[in-house]
Amino acid sequence: MKSKKLLIGLFSMFGMAMLSNSLFAQQNLGAACGCPTVATRTTAAITSVGSWITLPAAAYGKELTSGNVTLTCDKIWTLDEKLYIGSGATITIQPGTVIKASDAGTNVAAARALIIERGGKIIAPGTEDCPIVFTAAADPLNGSYGVANKGMWGGVLICGKASNNLTLAANGPFIPGQGGKMAVADGLGVLEGFASSYPQDQFGVALSVPSGTTISTSPSGSYSFALTAGAAASGSNAAGQNKLSLSASAPAFVVQGQTVTGAGIPANTTILSIATSVLTLSNNLNGPVALNDPITFGGTYPNGGASGYFSTISATTVVGAPVAVVGSSTVSYVGAYYTSTAAFDDNDNSGVMTYVSIRHSGANLLVGSEINGLTLASVGRGTKIEHIEIVSCADDNIELFGGTVDLKYCTTLFGNDDMYDYDLGWSGRAQFLFGMKAQQAGSSNEANAISFDNDNGFECDSDDNVSNATLKSNPKIYNATIMGNAKGTGAAAPNNTGSADNRGLAAINMKEAAQGTIANSVFANFKNGFNVENMLTNRSAAGQGNSFQYWSTIPQSGANLNALEGVGATPNPSLLVKCNHFIGMANPFVIGASTITGNTTVTTPAAATTQFGADGNVIVTGNTLAGFNYDFTINGATNAVTQKNDVVPNPALALGTGCSQAPMDGFFEPANYRGAFSSTAGDNWLSDWSYSQVLGSTLGVQACPTDLNGDGITNTADFLIFAPAFGTNCN
């Protein structure tokens, strides 16, 4: 465990003692790196530096296709659209830099986000003294912006080329927001809620030819073709209307973002949406459009000069259409396009993110397709992700879709849905993870609601469509402290509320054939502790079990696998949940809890309960663990903390008989205790920049050496402790 650095100096003057952590960490962000105070920084759009191209309108953003742009800490950088960092391009963010994202309002498809494409890089090496902050445009960064503000913008998404278990047969073809249908080819997926027409939104690699495509190379430059207007329909073709009717259904090569010209059509008009033969335009018509008037469409090839898989369409005779005949097929160069590298790269490097805080994110793109605070999709182990903090996210705080990337020193605060969510074969490592929810403040519609659901600490999936793909999610996770909000407040207690797309409500919700290791951790205040799913509808042989079968050591009793038996004649578990504390859980261990309101759907066999205990898992009834307290209350509007939690058991929790520290493999660090934090004062990794410390919300973690009384704030009380000892010998 790394030791703390002195961030401020003890007290250079009495006045320094009067500064709260909130003021210092927010307005003086990056002062140690020479950054000006936040209030004095000028404002600039990220796209004001570097050379960006405008993507088709349906993508709602711009792309940096080459070179490097650097965001310096002397400015507040604005994120006002989706910004893509293309293959071969890099965005560098200096320590102490602030990026503010605007709210897209009702145009949910335009939610602001920063997307690092496959082959692109983000270099964001924040430091303990000078973190990097992504936040909402409305956040004045003085600690006053309420933690109840969630979903104000999208988030940060990184796409890589590392392994995943997507198959077109089970996980495709891609349908935005629909039941895990993310695949456009074997190994190639589309980020949740994004349009499949753009390779910028894809992760992994195409291991197979995507359905309905042909390989080709796109022309470069511009195109132009003409169609004819149809008879006026309701609300179309008349001056003052923003709709245009064609004489027939729009062909596949009429797409959003194309320019439209003709009689009655203002200059610089583009297509916003298409419904059979009716086009919605970006401008109102300034004159009528008559039947059979020629309408000219134009644009620039979106993937000019690129080779890959382009969508096939019916043959066309339209002159100038952005299509070509390739072999026996007609391809559209403005339709769906997919690149291919034909092999995963598990060492893929998408850059560096250290000491980065992502606040008030999680905007909806579609129902069930919200943007997470930080999305890591097929990200490789060459990428460094450490000291990441997600604050007040409306959806999953950190979600991993396949990949091999490792995580260390990560924090999630006050979010909805799951704190850590992994799927599609993630096989990385993680250590020192902290997560806490706030109390339930009523309902999702209540203005002051914070973490209104009691969803999972870890949601662990291998394959949303239970295809039994060979590659399983199999991470190794050590030293987490995850605190839920099942206790609730007032009439809402206990909090058994789940979000619409979730079930189980567990500290560890092990689902859909997930494997791996979760060990030496502390989980508190969830409805369920360890919930493990036990059935797959297409389970037929050893090696095709659900998570229960990978965990269970109950041997087979016959030729047919029973729902409550381990896989193989002599089970050798590939799912280990060992040496953890489960504190204040109504149901510490359940099998098959699969509804928001349910606890268990099958009878828990005595052998399974015995195994849970024999694996070193300890159950603590109620909020009674010495030195530890999961009660927490905060006002979501004012950020006033009236009940602090304490995340460090004292005395420290010994690993126990049969338990061992994380493997010494160059990534994991020695930690001979359970949970994310050492009980040794000054030996913890939450620093003053961390929002839990800014708010003074967490006891037990002495991140700041000047916080002598451990109340989370450096103030006169600490000075009075220090003053009598001034000048004494430390020996």
Structural account:
- Helix content is 6%, strand content 29%.
- The protein has 731 residues and is mainly beta.
- The longest helix is centred in the last third of the chain and has 9 residues, at 606-614.
Topology:
Blueprint: H1 14-18, H2 21-27, E1 42-45, E2 52-54, E3 61-64, E4 67-71, E5 75-79, E6 82-85, E7 89-93, E8 98-101, E9 113-116, E10 121-125, E11 132-136, E12 155-159, H3 168-171, E13 183-185, E14 188-190, E15 202-204, E16 213-217, E17 222-228, E18 243-245, E19 259-261, E20 269-275, E21 278-281, E22 294-300, E23 307-313, E24 323-326, E25 329-332, E26 337-338, E27 351-359, E28 374-377, E29 384-391, E30 398-401, E31 406-413, E32 420-423, E33 429-436, E34 458-460, E35 476-483, E36 506-510, E37 516-519, E38 522-524, E39 528-532, H4 547-551, E40 575-578, E41 581-583, E42 587-591, H5 606-614, E43 618-620, E44 633-634, E45 641-643, E46 645-646, H6 691-694, E47 698-699, H7 716-722
